[in-house]
Amino acid sequence: MMGKLDPKPKNVALVAADDSFDVSVANGTRKLAKEAGLELVVDKQFRENNADFSSILSLTKSKDPDVILWAGHEGEALNFIRQAKSLDVNPKLLYSFTVGVPTADFRKALGKDAEYAFGMTPWLPEKELKDDWFGDAVQFDKEYQARFNYAPDYHAASAAADVEAFAKAIAAAGTLDPKKVRDEIAKVDFQSLYGHIKFQANGQISLPQTVIQIQDGKVAPIFSEDFLGKPRYPIPPWSKR
Description:
By secondary structure, the protein is of the alpha/beta class.
């Protein structure tokens, strides 16, 4: 996506937690950034559940990066953004987070300060995602909001598809015997409100990621393999929001 933006970013500040997931994200990001010709001007790791980002933010500010790529948990992301505002730390072009951005909690907790944040999600409520129980993902989104009073994110859609996978597997097995149900789960192949559910040899399903951005308090799709939306870019500094 960054390769298609104007102006095109030239360098990146990479900030990641030290848990296994975020370490793997950082490792992959370093490789991809190098292949894309992006210079890493900051490459810092923080301890999981960290609440103080002042030293990392001070270093980042001194390097004045085009982009901040951040990997960690949602609570840490909230702290990072609040402290970035307090210390007036601004990337020249954009910042993006591995988690939080798709969730209603993220937008509620930050209010207007959530605006412009980029993130990723494997799911958005689209009519193309057909479903045996809800009709499609748009209908699921409507029913979910009516019942729980907030918009679902990919966690909720995935959870619904998990139950659907169990329902199909149990029906196919004709029993609740764990091994037989497990064997049928391995065979499931159906369209759901979450996407195409078919497990690979490693036990995972394959779903493409979509880059999103918070715009006017809502999640806006920005980029996928065959789509480029309208990002609000470059993001303005805190003093001009």
